[in-house]
Specification:
about 500 residues; Nucleotidyltransferase, domain 5; seven-stranded mixed β-sheet; 19 strands
């Protein structure tokens, strides 16, 4: 029997982070969460930041917990959300706390960018979906309002790259996280230096880029000794959390799409080359780096953010309720009453989401959801309807029919959302693994360390190690009228 390898995966999301120990015996993978911690924005002088030093302290705490378990680590890998970054001085000191992607400083920056470089040229170069919080617009904001800070920078590191630097002393970036920036040349590879010059952004601060499954370096002695660990290698998995999640999709062959479902829903397919044509631009699809030379052709949809913000609002009022209970209440609420576009700009920032959903329905002349269950039902049905629209666009642009949809991530546990997705899209839905990001992170580390030989083997191990749930569409569900109403709503929003 093959020896068991131990890999520590750090998965940092927009609301929480955790350390997951992955134990791989050569055939099956076992995951164990050993540390969890809260994450979220910190408001400083009316701006939203990430408390990166505190997050790094949590990473070191997890390493110490691992040491107390007397686990020798064969690899350590970090994945996080995309686009956000820290600027370092030439001496390697952080110039400011990293800004949160929902900070208001990027308002108007897309228009400023298009004034300097046509929208079509930006997309042709980068192949990335236009979203106001992309790194491009964050940097343009700094260049516009705080040029001195940008001029003082020696290096830009994205969030997982920053933590890797603090762990190892090595400054570099990993391909999947670099591509989220809208500053990476999708077709030619490397940073889009010509584009950056037109935007008056310093290309010299951008780090060297390595592919997923690359070594970063060993833990610095002071980090290893402080945690009580033996020296251990840090590996770059797919450092973008969605990249790790997609690597864990338990699929093979063609004809499948994925929905990486969490705060965001990333709806897409895996392609061998970027698609940067006019139709992809019109649909606002994105080309992000994947494992083993693949490209994640996808679209960001608002995801469970609406429900999460509703829950946060209700809890602030003293109405504590679990996600499981919210889903039960939504399941009991009337179906196909009111819908919203989950990507409506009114929902983009933190705030009173229940009120915003009610106001949006009222403004559109729809019945206004009042109860908790009605509001959550409206959010989940709207999300599944948006999945359908996005999947149809993917089929049209790629020319590939989608025969099955794999839902991975936390949303795989939401039985109501999975059932709605199957019924509304008319496609079988395979749900799982819910721990896709951690599983993908661990198994790409195993790929880097030579314990598996290919992305296909990564996925076969994960499929053999994970219980999966299939939801078949109900042909009698009767969603045709609701689909028509939702499409009309999207058309009205486009005209508006």
């Amino acid at each position: 029997m093959a020896a068991t390898s131990n890999y520590l995966a750090f998965d940092l999301g927009a609301s929480s982070g955790r350390a997951v120990l992955g134990m791989f015996d050569g055939d099956r993978l076992t995951l164990e969460e050993i540390h969890r911690f809260a994450n979220g924005p910190v408001t400083i002088r009316d701006h939203l930041h990430w408390d990166a030093p505190r997050l790094f302290a949590e990473i070191k705490s997890a390493l110490a917990k691992c040491a107390r378990r007397r686990r020798a680590l064969d690899g350590i890998g970090i994945d996080t959300w995309g686009v956000d970054y820290a600027l370092l001085s030439p001496a390697g000191q952080m110039l400011d706390l990293p800004f949160h992607y929902r900070d208001s400083r990027t308002r108007g920056m897309m228009a400023e960018a298009f004034h300097l470089v046509p929208r079509e040229e930006i997309y042709e170069r980068t192949g990335i979906q236009f979203m106001e919080f992309n790194t491009l617009y964050q940097l343009l904001s700094v260049a516009t309002t705080d040029r001195a800070t940008l001029d003082a920078a020696g290096t830009l590191l994205f969030m997982p790259d920053l933590f890797n630097y603090w762990l190892t002393g090595v400054k570099q970036s990993e391909y999947s996280i670099a591509t989220t920036s809208q500053l990476y040349d999708a077709l030619r590879g490397g940073w889009a230096t010509h584009l950056m010059a037109k935007l008056n952004l310093p290309a010299e601060i951008m780090p060297h880029v390595v592919p997923p499954a690359s070594p970063v370096g060993d833990l610095l002695p002071e980090i290893a000794d402080g945690a009580g660990l033996a020296p251990a290698p840090v590996v770059a998995p797919a450092c973008h959390d969605t990249g790790s999640a997609v690597a864990a999709v338990p699929a093979h062959g063609q004809g499948w799409a994925y929905i990486s479902s969490g705060t965001w829903s990333l709806v897409g397919v895996e392609v061998p080359e970027p698609i940067c044509d006019t139709e992809a631009l019109t649909g606002n699809f994105t080309n992000e780096g994947g494992v083993a030379g693949t490209v994640r052709f996808l679209k960001n949809v608002a995801g469970l953010w609406l429900v999460q913000e509703c829950k946060r609002t209700w809890e602030a009022r003293g109405e504590s309720v679990s996600y499981e209970k919210l889903t039960e209440m939504a399941d009991a609420a009337p179906s196909r009453v009111s819908f919203v576009d989950p990507d409506d700009p009114r929902f983009a920032e933190p705030g009173d989401m229940p009120r915003r959903i009610r106001d949006c329905c009222a403004a559109g002349g729809q019945p206004v959801p009042e109860s908790t269950g009605q509001i959550v039902r409206c959010a989940l049905e709207s999300l599944a309807l948006k999945y359908r629209t996005t999947l149809h666009s993917l089929e049209r642009i790629t020319g590939w029919p989608v025969e099955v949809v794999h839902v991975v991530g936390g949303g795989a546990n939401n039985r109501l959302l999975c059932r709605l997705t199957a019924d509304i899209t008319g496609k079988p839905v395979v749900a799982g693994p819910a721990e896709a990001t951690a599983a993908g992170n661990v198994m790409v580390q195993a790929l880097a360390r030579g314990r598996v030989s290919s992305l296909d083997q990564v996925r076969r191990v994960i499929a053999a190690s994970t219980p999966l749930q299939q939801y078949d569409p109900d042909p009698a569900a009767g969603w045709d009228d609701a689909i028509g109403r939702f499409e009309a709503l999207l058309a009205d929003d486009t005209v508006a």
